[in-house]
Amino acid sequence: MNMTPTGVMVPAGDYPVVHENESINRAADILVSSFRNKDGTWRGYESLLVKNDYNEIVGLFTLRSLLKALGLNDQDSINSLTGLFLIKSKNVSLQVRNFMRSLDNRIINIADDLNQVVDVIINNQVNSVVVVDCDKIVGVIRAIDLLWFVDEMI
């Protein structure tokens, strides 16, 4: 695999974004809307880029982030669906910044090859990495993007 990230990445401008001060309700709405096609089939992204007040990308809000915010990973939770209902119905304002994932160990340079992308995803147990060019985020590579690339190579 001597291809660079540009061949498989989703351009940053095409990736859904949420502000770090937004509620997880809003982030969930964006995730769901990016997942559903008009015909009802599912597609889309499993994460959102998170920006700050300076319009800088500072993290990723993932499906796992959402589940954590809802308490679905809490063994002591009586009923996680009740937690989801309460958050939606009472408009609890948990903020994205409290549950987003850091970009640490998720950064790939645009000049790197796809072997390095695979190494970062596997070694850091993440599902996506951000691609930078001169310290600016220009794209996102998800594990599924590598699958499409591998399928084309076989």
Describe this structure in words.
- The chain has a single domain, classed as Roll (CBS-domain), CATH 3.10.580.
- 33% of the residues lie in helices and 21% in strands.
- It is built from 5 helices and 7 strands.
- Strand 6 and strand 7 form a beta hairpin.
- It comes from Desulfotruncus arcticus DSM 17038.
- Keywords: CBS domain.
Report strand order across the widest sheet. 1-7-6-5
How many domains? The number is 1
CATH superfamily: CBS-domain
Counting DSSP E segments of at least 2 residues, the number of strands comes to 7
Mean pLDDT over the residues: 83
Individual helix count: 5
Low-confidence stretches: none
- What's the overall geometry? globular
| N-to-C series of helices and strands | EEHEEHHEHEEH
Radius of gyration: 17 Å
Terminal CA distance: 12 Å
What is the CATH domain class? Answer: Alpha Beta
InterPro entries: CBS_dom (IPR000644), CBS_dom_sf (IPR046342)
Keywords: CBS domain
Protein name: CBS domain-containing protein
Organism: Desulfotruncus arcticus DSM 17038
Structure described in brief:
With 154 residues, this protein is of the alpha/beta class. It is built from five helices and seven strands; from the N terminus they run ββαββααβαββα. The protein has one domain (5-153): CBS-domain.
Please render the helix and strand layout as text.
Elements (H helix, E strand, L loop, with lengths): L9 E2 L5 E3 L4 H12 L11 E5 L5 E6 H7 L10 H11 L16 E3 L4 H10 L4 E6 L2 E7 H11 L1
Parallel strand pairs: 2-3, 5-6
Antiparallel strand pairs: 1-7, 3-4, 6-7
Task: Name some characteristics of this structure.
single chain; 154 residues; alpha/beta; CBS-domain; three-stranded mixed beta sheet; 21% strand; CBS domain-containing protein; CBS_dom_sf
